[in-house]
Batch of 2 targets.
Target 1
Amino acid sequence: MEELEQFGILAKNGRQDIKDDKITILGAEIKEINFQTLQEAGIKEICILRSEIKYLYFLEKNTIKIDFENCNFKNQIIARESYFKNEVIFRQCVFDAVVDFSKVEFNSKIDFLASVFKSEVRFIETQFQAEQSNNETIENNFGEIIFERRVSFSSATFQARVNFALSQFKDEVNFTKTKFQANQSNDKIIENHFLGVIFTGKAIFDDAIFKARVSFGISQFENEARFIGTQLLAKQDSNETIENEFRETIFKGKVTFDSLVLKTRISFLFSIFKDEALFLNINPNNFIFHNLEFNKTKFACKTLTNVIFCLFQYSVFKDALSFEGMKIERLRFDNVLFNGVVTFSNTKLNTKPQFINCTFSNQFNIEHQYIKYSDKDIENKINSIQNENDKFQALLNLRDLFRKLKSNRIAHHNLIDASELRTQELYARELELKYQENKSLKEKIEQWQLFFYRKLCDHHTDILQSLNSLILVIGIFGVLNLAIIIGFNCYLGYKPILEHLYFSLDFYNFHIKPFIENNHLFIIFVNFLILFVYLILVGFALCEKYIRKFFITISYVITFFIMITSPKILIPAMGIFTDKRVMLDPLSVLGGIYTIVFGFVVFSFIKTIRKNSIVPS
């Protein structure tokens, strides 16, 4: 090995081969390599395999191609502000001490594949200037490396593609202001590859710039991860979907995505956030949240940000989800499991959040205004859908949503909100039956039953509506009573005036019995007519908005008049034991059908009061 001394290499044992301008050494113990002597001797390439090396002395400008494989470097390597013209390869090497390549310029390909750094590593402000090729070559290869101590690539520049796939950072790693300048291409090679990387310590990518695609797929961040001010500048190609990937990534510590600059979307498909996840000052339009597991999650913006569409699909929120400082046009949760609270602070939703096939645990909570749908809201939502089958499916989804939310509110002992959600569920069922083809008789009856209860008392949730319905039933009864008496008396030639209405009743009572005895068929026809007129008037007054308003106005007046003149008229059934009217008397027939309707509406009114009472039942 004495021959090597003239080239500045102090070594023993092993084998050597010196051919032309290339030196090859295998299995040696090398005390020192002096690159100044090597260059002065005209050496162009040095290749050292399976050797132990103590000291490396680089020049300020190194022109030799360097190839170290399976070597062990026992002492620190300091090459600050140096220049390397040709390839630098440290493949499957072990570095026992500090490695410092800060402010170094690598003008060609570098390769640290499968190496181990046992101490601190610095590539601060380092320039990786290898030109990007069009083949499958990775110009800057840090794949499968183990970094056991702190690593810094802050303010470094990678001019071409870079690969950190399957590497391990066991302590803090810093990529602050690092520039990844590889040009975007449409081939299968991701320009900035962090596939399967394990970040055991804190990972910092603040203000880093990725000019082309970046992939952190199936990586693990076991400590805090920060992407603050990070620029992901890959652009969407018209022929191919270009995405930055965090696919199947696991974040075990707190993660912050703040003020990102994006030109295309980021995919978080199948990723897991086990700690707090902060998405700050960004637009969720640019994120793909499918098949994720979240813990505590927050989306917040300092200034009001317009979000066109935000979709979470097949995901789990184990803790709170909050939105702050946003204007969201459409927010959709599809097959999502909620275990915590959902809040909207200083956020405007143009439409209510969509919950499709979602599951809500007992801990789920959300302001009622975001899940409260009026009849008009549901109708507008369904009418905006053109396809009839899609309408039917949308109604099934809505009814399922209201059912689950109702169960959630009951679990929280919030019976008032649960009652409103039950009303929404029933209306969705009503519309579902409306759009369902080939309904059975039972389903047809159910549809009209739901319609009637909604108009009568909003399914026992609206006390005022229920009271108005009761007053309508009384008022229409009073109007028809008066109409029957006046009509009968006019038919017999008696023309009463207002001040003689009381005598009109006497005239009616005196003549009705002989009239019925002589006109059975006619009086039966009249009674059927009265029956239908009363039911039709009640039906229209309950169901038609403007007819309802008209009859409510006069019904309160009539009911008040009846109360101060003859309250017993309100319950004609009481007259069975006091009055002796003949069979088929129109007033008795009207009183009978009114009594049935009145009893039904009173029962509904009492039930509505009890359901909305603050007094426990």
Target 2
Amino acid sequence: MSEECCGPDEPRKARTIQRVELKRPHAAGDSCCAPDTARECEALAPHDDGDACCGPALPSRNSVGGEESELRPAWWRDVALLPSTLSGLFLVAGYAFEWAGVGIPALVLQWAALLAGAYTFVPGAIRRVIRGGLGVGLLMTIAAIGAVLLGHVGEAATLAFLFSLAEALEDRAMDRAKEGLRSLLSLIPDAVRVSRLAGDTTIPAADVRELDILIVGAGERVATDGVIVDGRSSLDTSAITGESIPVDVQPGDVVAAGSVNGSSTLRIEATADGRDNSLTQIVSLVEQAHARKGDRARLADRIARPLVPVVLIAAALVVVFGFVVGDPSTWIERALVVLVAASPCALAIAVPVTVISAIGSASKFGVVIKSGEAFEQLGTIRAVALDKTGTLTRNEPAVVDVLPAVGISREDLLSWAGAVEKTSSHPLAAALTAAAPRSLPATDVIEAAGHGITGRVEGRVVRVGNVRWLTPGALSAAADEMAEAGMTVVVVETDGMIAGLIGIRDELRPESAETVRLLQDAGIDVTMLTGDNERTARAIATQAGITDVRAEQLPADKASVIEALAATRPTAMVGDGINDAPALATATVGIAMGLKGSAAAIESADVAFTGNDLRLIPGALAHARRGRRIMTANILLALAIIVVLFPLALFGVLGLAGVVLVHEIAEVFVILNGVRAARRPAPLRALAATPEPARV
């Protein structure tokens, strides 16, 4: 099982999966998995199956590209189950001979069952003791040896069989939880065609380097992140983002590793190496996630770690009591039963199996949770703050209203504005240029930062700017109406006369209002944060169904708002831009939206969505809340087993065989209950069934 509460040990069974290599080298003293999380290194210690102690260690990682990998074999072909299987068969045969009155064969078979089962945990327990560590395996070893010395070989064999079986089942549960994660790497093809000066050549996907030109044929997978330089097609990104319909792409569009190309060949310029792309980094983050334990994991550890020596002391006191009252044989036997009854097997795995199952499952529907701590905190969220631009909206401003002055045509107004804005880098310039019905040349173009732009078009002096720079005059009332409707008002002036108004708006995502409704139905308060002016912000918020609006917020202001919200209740911040990074870092849980999110936002966040559908937010929160409930139930069950079995063992109500049976059945139940956390919650099932509009 695992070593975290009791110290590392050599593995009983080597398990390897594909490795994710990140660019950032780990300096001496650096944390193993992520910055400022030194305790994560503990989780990277070798995995010991000899003690059902405190959860899994991280799997070993080998190279991306498939040189080394392992899928979980079917249970009838899993050699890890062989010792337990042999132990069970020998045990059943031994009891059959005993009931038939054939003593010697029965004893031999029971000894065989004991040795086969003990092989899985006794060597590890001995090695740990030599290094000065204590563990649950030691409790089981002492109990088995004591039972043999008292002449109860059958009960010792039963203990060994059930404990080894529980270990093997836990291993399979952990492997199953990680299987979805390992399968993500299978989305990267083994080889890829690359364009070279001498012609096209095929190379291993792991050898792809940034700026290589990849040739991706119809139906082939994209080996690494890149930008399309030639070709038009559609991409199936469902395995990466959870979006169930293909996305149309063309030159200039960004594509993610693991996407499946549609019907046309694409030429893609790689923007990441084959060993370090968005997909491999997702896998790396999820592998490392359970290293940073949440509150429940730490609670389980705090209970489990001291419990082993406490149980040993309690058993020793029971033995001493037996000598005091003059019945050492009876009380030694009870002491052995107490060792088993109070062992924290189920408690130790109550949280890790749940966390790994839930985080691994979340990665498959587009939610990357960076730590066990973040997963647990995600389940506590009672308020969500949403950035407006790029989160609630598409971050694609477009002209939505045009009001020319008397005597000016709509086409002329748009063409004049588009002409002077053609060379501008302002975010609204692209919208004006795209809306222009014809392309006109502009000369003497001068841009006034924060105000607007001036140029000469067809002999006219044209100025385009905001209402603070150019007063709308007779169109002031119309400008106010546009602003109330959530538009940014652009005023166009020609030769000193107001030529008209152009309304530009960054439209809401189609799922924004539904997402807000789902959050509110779940009892979660929703706040919108934006740097826009109050009127524009209110208009957009009204469309989305949000009443709590904080407008004209600088990055520091957003962080202050989040700090105030988080002081009263657990709060998640959802954003995608560099200006959201301080707020994401301040929130109880920071959530970075989509593959287009800035690197600063993704780095600051605790959770990252690989898709762009906002409905992932209520889905992820529901997934985390369900996982917390399962963890809580597991911890309570594990504690209840110890509390109930201890007095029954101490006063002789249950013997060794009975306690072992109840204890191991409870452990199996805890494992199976934890694996349930991998199930997709109802909001995410509904999301999969209702695809969002295709977009990149």
